[in-house]
Amino acid sequence: MRSKNSLRRFVPACVTISLLGGGAGQAAEQTAKTPAIAVLAGGEAAQWQAWTKDLGWRVIVPDSSAGQGADVHVQAVSAAVQEAIRNSGVDPDRVYLAARSAADVLYTISRTPDLWAAAVAAGGSPQAAIDTNRIFAANFRNTPVLWISQDPGTQDLAGKLKSAGLNLERRSGDVAAGSVLQWLAAHQREEFPLSVDCETNAPAFARCYWIQLTKFDPAERNDVLPTTLIPGSSGAALDLGGFSYKLDDPGPGVLVNLPQKYSGPLKTGDRIVALDGKPVENARQFAETMEKTTEEKSAVAMVQRGAERKRIETRIVLPKRDPVVTARVQGKYVPEDKEIQVITRTVTELRVTVPPQWVPANLYWNGLALEDIKTPGCIALKMNKELLRAERCQ
Questions:
Q1: SS3 of 185, please?
Q2: Number of structural domains, the chain?
């Protein structure tokens, strides 16, 4: 179901380049490179082009023929952004992300945290992304997200995400395009932030600003860096042959939607009105009950079928999930001490890019001094049988 609060409900507004701030000299410098918005769905591009026309921003649309799958799409988005930076004069420090789907926005940032200055999600719920078990709070440290939602039921979820560490701002109601663009323009990405923190479960998504993780080893775990994974819902479901329902169903109970060739005990038009003797008030309350269930067990569902009530014995089942093994890196440059400090978990090789303004500096990896850096550039760090070494990248 598409959120009622989609980008189409924004009121277009005239926004001038003054939103970007700065004096005349700074403005001239900024015009040399163009800000851009990466739009995750091609159908939304025309509206963003209209809204950003007065600003002169570029709209980036990924290749829709790249293939299926969330990670494939994220890689297509990343490739489109990198191409625009290389060949279209796009400012790498002012690339923004936009979509109607909050789930798509959070997933894309969690996979590629160092591409974005800020992002806007204009509707939907991020729960689908959270349920992938690939949303890591650390990856949002330097990327603020504006989530616009008219669903009051999302307030609690927004609070949970913020408490977990997401750099998230939630707004409700109709928001003018001008205010959204102004919010985005107020943020700028740093190429070399003094502090970075990233976590991933895939080597293909292991870039973290000035650090690139290149080799993982699950055996190299430590307790210094805990996971920042935001766990998904339990996935608990009633073993009734598979059915769906609308989360905004006001009740009473839950009206079931049955797939084609359904062979379970439910019938079209059935409402689940009680579970284990407790009334089911509405779909949201039913979903919360399932989310809190963490073990499989027998259950009794009471179903309203026309004027009759049917008692159906069933089970609450949980999906089989493999344990999540992740790698995490924290990097910090301490100017007063001229130190570059890197801490990792589940990592045996990585690359650190040192900018000119940080040299000379001492480089530490997991508390051990590795190199006195006198020239900028790329340093390769490697671990072999618990021995750490540093060398210039080949």
A1: helix
A2: 3
